[in-house]
Amino acid sequence: xxxxxxxxxxxxxxxxxxxxxxxxxxxxxxxxxxxxxxxxxxxxxxxxxxxxxxxxxxxxxxxxxxxxxxxxxxxxxxxxxxxxxxxxxxxxxxxxxxxxxxxxxxxxxxxxxxxxxxxxxxxxxxxxxxxxxxxxxxxxxxxxxxxxxxxxxxxxxxxxxxxxxxxxxxxxxxxxxxxxxxxxxxxxxxxxxxxxxxxxxxxxxxxxxxxxxxxxxxx
Length: 219
Fold this sequence. Notes:
The protein is mainly β. The chain has 2 domains: 10-102, Cupredoxins -  blue copper proteins (Immunoglobulin-like), CATH 2.60.40; 113-213, Immunoglobulin-like (Sandwich). Helix content is 0%, strand content 44%. The chain has strands at 10-16, 19-21, 24-27, 32-37, 47-48, 74-78, 83-88, 97-102, 113-121, 135-142, 146-154, 165-171, 174-180, 188-197, 207-213. Strand 1 (10-16) and strand 2 (19-21) form a beta hairpin. 22% of the residues are buried.
């Protein structure tokens, strides 16, 4: 069977503290970006720069000194023309701007994580208070550059469905080595779950690896 076309995505950007967060997003043609006024400041617009390939404005016809939004308000635009499209706030055009990069060739392939191994180093002394896990070593291969989210859960413990540690970082294409500062972990068995999100928002299947924190044997 042939796979059908991927559904258009909607990327989200927060308008907050005189900035657009994230400041740059990458989308496929036909995808949308939704800006949300998160505050506490809300006197901002989302307006295409003069000469941009696509024109859009959250406040058409409104003078800059009349622009204001309720917290939680949103503005959405669907992008169709490839290129780097700059936009700005008409109230603060000198320092508040962002970019939407529209790919010329659509990317609907999710990143792939392979060969994930997690190992803890130099962990415990006498008890949970002095049980230190300053570095958790991750090794894995990644099919493309992506943003990564790592979650640690304790196996066989009440509430194990809830992560006790969460990390976010960027991985490169190919082989990756990463040391995470996990802090104090009790002697136990743990599972690390790793997911990757590429520039246009495609999300990988989760990769998982188990590791143990053990008390050292006394010599």
